[in-house]
Amino acid sequence: MPKFIVAANWKLNNTVQESLMLVAGIIAHVKLAPNVEVVLAPPFTSLYSVGVSLTDSELKLAGQNIYWEEKGAFTGEISGSLLKDIGCLYVLIGHSERRKYFGETNETVNKRIFAALRNELVPIMCIGETLQERESGKTYEILERQLKGGLMGLQQKDLEKFSIAYEPVWAIGTGKNATGDQIEEAHHFIRNYVAKLYDAPTANNISILYGGSVKASNCKEIYKQPNVNGVLVGGASLDAKGFCDMIAQTPGQK
User: Fold this and answer.
1) Active-site residue 187, yes or no?
2) What is the structure's pLDDT at 91?
3) Annotated domain spans of the chain
4) CA 139 to mean position of chain CA atoms
């Protein structure tokens, strides 16, 4: 059974002090059920400090991005070895905002995934369609293209520690919410496509997260979906109480 992951993407928010205050609030109230993993992805300036504050907790640290080279003249980039050095266990790759604003492609996503795996970081590969693509009936075509491109060249063993986040672009920061049926249909397609590329046991071991305006008031409906193994939370993760409420509703909580 795959881990159930609740991942917080703080994006371009919080000073170091604000990040530490948020972490303290989460640690003070969080209660984890068995097989639930909580992952925090602060901005790069807060990674080290947040990592230190997580030392005696069960919470895990993630980078928001990774470059495919290990070192050299690549101003502004961060490598897998640097992320690992400060305690990261996970890394977000191919987030829709990276694709939209910074020219991320399926090819560069693939390079970043290999960089993560080289450094024993668990990739959270983000995929999803735009509103125009959904309304044109191209959702599955887009997901297939992103999965095929992102997973290109990966062996079955590479997916032993691997996560995928389905984030419909039209439901991120727009106030629009995907229905439970829409989420399950997409997650079911993703798992079946991974099984087609590899095999069913490999696909069934992958945590497939949902990301798209997730908050405490709608997460329970999302968690009910058979092929949902967690959530990738954006803005709602900046509030410690609300984020802990989402964790408290995860399957297996007493």
Assistant:
1) no
2) 99
3) 4-248
4) 19
> Which position among 95, 97, 129, 184 bears the catalytic label?
95
First to last CA, the chain: 19
Which is catalytic among the residues 37, 129, 167, 184? 167
Q: What is the pTM of this model?
A: 0.96
- Summarised one tens digit per residue, pLDDT across range 158-186 is 999 999 999 999 888 666 789 999 999 99
The reply to whether CATH 3.20.20.70 applies to domain 4-248 is: yes
Q: Which segments in the chain show pLDDT lower than 70?
A: 173-175, 254
What's the burial of 218, exposed, middle or buried (CB within 10 Å: 0-12/13-18/19+)?
middle
Q: Are 156 and 198 in contact (CB under 8 A)?
A: yes
- Is residue 95 among the annotated active site residues? yes
What radius of gyration, in Å, describes the C-alpha atoms of the chain?
17
| Kind of pairing between the strands at 163-166 and 90-93 | unpaired
Q: DSSP string spanning 113-142?
A: HHHHHHTTPEEEEEE---HHHHHTT-HHHH
